[in-house]
Amino acid sequence: MSCAKIASGVTFSCPPPPAGVDADQIVLFNWDDVDRDTNTPTKATLTSISTLGSPAALGYVYEGVNNSVQPTYEGIDEGFNPYKFNHNLVFRIFADSDTIADLETDLQSGLFVAVYFTKSKRVKVMGWQVGLKATVTRNYFEEDGAALVTLATKGDEFETAVPLDYVGSASPTADFETLKAQIIALT
Q: Which is it for strands 45-46 and 164-166: parallel, antiparallel or unpaired?
């Protein structure tokens, strides 16, 4: 099992999770690589995700264990605009090496769209409109030395919706495993 794979070609071997525990998984896309012009969400759904470039840019997979991926969002009530939301996604990087230090630096300097998969079999998309900015904190005396990565709506900008549901373009909708496979195929 791969414990973390966030950058192309960077894989870490970790022990498998205990029986009965689902591994969490997210896919990160560089915000600038996502084609938002041809992939416009309708209300809270998104029918396709494509990336720019030739060849097309890739997303990066992170696999964690024991609920180490924790997405949240918060509605912000400011006057006449009720459509303001902060998106947050926290995950941990358990490995530690020079390669991981470089990866943490890359995360810190990036802006991302995150796709995560829920245990209720939904595919959710965060940071679609303004992106998610990363902060990385590693405290060797807590979290078993894991780096805590927090992706959050940047600065004073807001998303205009809760995390989007990725539903694919199949009519009426595709099943969860098909939707998940479509996202993983972009990595």
A: parallel
> Which tens digits make up the pLDDT trace of 34-46?
877 766 666 556 6
In eight-state DSSP terms, residue 65 is S
The phi-psi region of residue 67 (left if phi > 0; otherwise alpha if psi is between -120 and 50; otherwise beta) is: left
Q: Could you tell me the pTM of the whole model? A: 0.79
Which residues of the chain form beta strands (DSSP E)? 2-4, 12-13, 24-30, 45-46, 60-64, 70-75, 85-93, 111-117, 123-126, 132-138, 147-153, 164-166
69-97 per-position pLDDT tens digit = 888 889 887 766 667 899 999 988 888 88
Measure the CA–CA gap between 114 and 37, rounded to whole angstroms: 18
Q: What is the rounded CA–CA span in Å between residue 113 and residue 29?
A: 5
| Cα-based distances in Å from 70 to 9, 24, 103, 105, 159 | 25, 9, 20, 21, 18
Pairing of strands 111-117, 24-30: antiparallel
- The span from the CA of 76 to the CA of 9, in Å, is 39
Query: Residue 23 and residue 32: Cα distance in Å, rounded?
Result: 28
Yes or no: say if 26 and 107 are a contact pair by the CB < 8 Å rule: no
